Amino acid sequence: MSVDRWRGLTAGLLFALVWATNAHAAEQRLLIAPRLTDPRLADGEPPHLVAYDAGRTDAPLLVWLPGTGGQPATGPRLFFETALQQGLRLLALSYLDTPAVSQVCVGATLRADPACAGHLRQHRVWGEPRTRLVDDRPEDAIVPRLTHLLQHLARSDPAGDWAQYLDGDAPRWERLVLAGQSQGGGMAAYLAQTQRVAGVVIFSGGWDRQGGGDIAAWYARPSVTPRQRWHGTLHVSEPQAQAMAQIYRRLGLPPEHIHALDEPVQGRTAHGESIHNPAYQPLWVQMLQLQR
User: CA angle, 173 as apex, 87 and 192 as ends, to 5°?
Assistant: First the structure.
């Protein structure tokens, strides 16, 4: 799949990239500045990435949550392409992903608040209740950003029928598949426990701890998203591989949905292998098809 061209749409704030895969299909690609969807957000934040086949208006929506320091526009391109080829739409969300949970909930902070990880994820996913762990404002949280982006798309691109992913002033969760890597995978898991989504795909999704060194208690919360709709990956060479395998079991994932990967590491670290190594594309297809 090759890039044909970029064209500006709104004074550098909104762009579309048309990728022609064959004579019968064209995909719209938009880069949308977060402040364009909510004026309370800061200028200069990395843009959201939206991609979809203009010829399909009934596709499930894959919401991608980057890992710490990740940016939607430079995300795992082959995985994104694979999702589009499987008939999903893509929305890669820009959110405040630094500092990481694993950087905040350690040492004296974790001793003072053994449930630190759950509190921070609640703050960063929903915006309320706020904590003193990070400076994120309520409007900075993942769900408000996702909601405002969908509302913006419904207004600015009515031909795309974005209203189908909204239920009043909230996302229509059953039309969404949540996926993310590292911290973003943990955010996807945290959200899917309380909102029934079409599917969850976690790529090396973090290793939150609680006081005493055990994995965080929030992983054991009941899930309204059925466990058969969940998948989790890890690479066996990751330093935290054992902890992530335990976390996936604690989340209740079926054993056949826990994917311990062992192909030779192609990138800089094993932590990013599951989402960047082309050898795993058949697995991506399998996981995404199961969400349909």
Answer: 100
Question: What's 209's DSSP letter?
Answer: B
pLDDT tens-digit readout, 170-210: 999 999 999 999 999 999 999 999 999 999 999 999 999 99
Query: pTM of the prediction?
Result: 0.91
**Euclidean distance between CA atoms 224 and 96, whole angstroms:** 26
For the record, the structure tokens of 220 come out as 């054991």
Give the sign of the dihedral formed by CA 37, CA 41, CA 47, CA 50: negative
Cis peptide, bond prior to residue 264, ω within 30 of zero: no
Size (the chain), residues: 292
User: Is the Cβ–Cβ distance between 90 and 80 less than 8 Å?
Assistant: yes
- Residue carrying the six token digits 């904590």: 131
d(CA 111, CA 211): 6
Q: Are 14 and 36 in contact (CB under 8 A)?
A: yes
Which residues make beta-bridge pairs with 16? 7, 30
Q: Give the residue among 202, 69, 148 at the shortest CA–CA distance from 140.
A: 148
d(CA 278, CA 193) in angstroms, rounded, equals: 30
Amino acid, res. 24: H
Question: CA neighbours within 13 Å on the CB side: how many for 27?
Answer: 26
Copy the structure tokens of residue 175. 């039309």
The encoded tokens of residue 9 equal 């749409």
And the tokens for 7?
């064209």
Contact 16, 30 (CB under 8 A): yes
pLDDT, tens digit (0-9, with 9 covering 90-100), for 11-62: 233 333 333 333 335 789 999 999 999 999 999 999 999 999 988 888 999 9
Indicate the SS3 state at residue 80.
helix
Q: Give me the phi and psi of 141, to 5 degrees please.
A: -70, 160
Tokens representing 124? 């960063």
